[in-house]
Specification:
The chain has 191 residues and is mainly alpha-helical. The protein has helices spanning 3-19, 24-36, 40-53, 58-70, 74-87, 92-104, 108-121, 126-138, 142-155, 161-173, 177-189. The longest helix is centred in the N-terminal third of the chain and has 17 residues, at 3-19. The mean pLDDT is 92.
């Protein structure tokens, strides 16, 4: 969004809030626009107001959680991801991001549970598949990790990291060396 257009959008949101200060959707949408402009503190104020006006506003809780997680405020982020999921249990992205926040606090089993839930809801969720593969690998569950690296590759063949992680697994064990080389070649081709 160019600067002039962005200013125009902000002016429209300000006018909308002046006319309807108690409209949760307007606060939420204004928050989204502010977040896109790199103004997370201001965005957070509007997301908070949207949640105050409508406590079951799943998208506002989710957006708050994303900002909090970026600020490494994982406990608070977990609270808002959880509230979003209470309202909308099928919120796939919230499951993945909740898994990331839980992992950041060392709650690995709960993180894995949420990655698996996102994959159950959205089988092509390559980020959840990759995150799950990484958690399983770190726990020494290599056989299961391989399965999820492959799911990540299926979900997004342009995401090269799982190619290399799978190749590394094979190379470290000195098994499937031809496949390891092919995985590396494919990963290198991806820009």
């Amino acid at each position: 969004v160019n600067s002039g257009r962005s200013d125009e959008v902000m002016t429209h949101f300000s006018e909308a809030l002046r006319l309807k200060p108690d409209d949760a959707d307007t606060h939420y949408n204004f928050g989204v626009a502010l977040e896109k402009q790199g103004r997370p503190e201001e965005a957070m104020a509007h997301f908070s107001e949207a949640v105050r006006l409508r406590p079951d506003y799943a998208d506002a809780h989710y957006s708050m959680a994303v900002i909090l997680a970026r600020q490494s405020k994982f406990e608070e982020a977990i609270s808002h991801y959880s509230k979003a999921l209470q309202v909308r249990p099928s919120y796939a992205e919230a499951h993945n991001n909740l898994g990331v926040a839980l992992f950041s606090l060392g709650k690995l089993d709960k993180a894995i549970e949420h990655y698996k839930k996102e994959l159950e809801l959205f089988p092509q969720a390559f980020k959840a598949a990759y995150n799950l593969a990484e958690e399983l690998r770190k726990q020494g569950q290599f056989g299961e990790a391989i399965q999820y690296y492959r799911k990540a590759i299926e979900g997004n063949p342009q995401f090269n990291v799982p190619f290399f992680m799978l190749a590394k697994y094979y190379l470290d064990r000195r098994e499937n060396l031809e496949e390891a080389v092919e995985l590396c070649k494919k990963g290198i081709k991806i820009k």
